[in-house]
C-alpha cells in the first residue's frame, strides 16, 4: 500500500486519542473536511495497521482488582516460548505479555483482586506451566504514568 500518513491523518489520530467516542462528523467540522474524508482516512489507517482498534478502558480497582504485578518469567528453554505463550493466553489475569532480552525470558503484567488471588495465579496457573523454570514477582505500588505515544 502506497499511502503515507500526512498532517490531516495525524490531526485525526490526535483528536481520537483524546476521545475515541467522538463522532467523525465533529472531527470533520473541527478540521474543515467532510465526514466521509474522516471515514476514508480512518479506514486506510486501520488497513495499514496504524490503528489497531478502539477499546473501552476499565479501572481495575473500581471492579475489585486491586493488585497489579509484573512477573519476570524464566523459561527452561527459549525454544519453548511459543508453546508457553499459548498456555499463558488461557490465564485471564495476564493482561500483557512481552518476550524480552535481559534477565527474564518473558515479562507479564497481571491484574488480581488481592494478594491471595495473585498467589493462586502464580502457584496454580503460571508456575504449573511446563517450560516455566521459575518466576520473579514485582508488585506495583502505584501507576505513575500511563499514556499513548505522542503523534507529532
Automatic annotation (TrEMBL):
Keywords associated with the record: DNA-binding, Transcription, Transcription regulation
GO biological process, one term: response to amino acid
A Pfam family reported for this protein in Swiss-Prot or TrEMBL: HTH_AsnC-type
SMART domains membership: HTH_ASNC (SM00344)
Recorded superkingdom: Bacteria
GO molecular function: sequence-specific DNA binding
Protein's UniProt keywords contain Transcription regulation: yes
Gene3D superfamilies to which the protein is assigned, alphabetical: 3.30.70.920, Winged helix-like DNA-binding domain superfamily/Winged helix DNA-binding domain (1.10.10.10)
Domain called HTH asnC-type: residue spans: 5-66
GO CC aspect terms: cytosol
InterPro entries: AsnC-type_HTH_dom, Dimeric_a/b-barrel, Tscrpt_reg_AsnC-like, Tscrpt_reg_AsnC/Lrp_C, WH-like_DNA-bd_sf, WH_DNA-bd_sf
PANTHER family recorded: LEUCINE-RESPONSIVE REGULATORY PROTEIN, TRANSCRIPTIONAL REGULATOR AZLB
The protein, known as: AsnC family transcriptional regulator
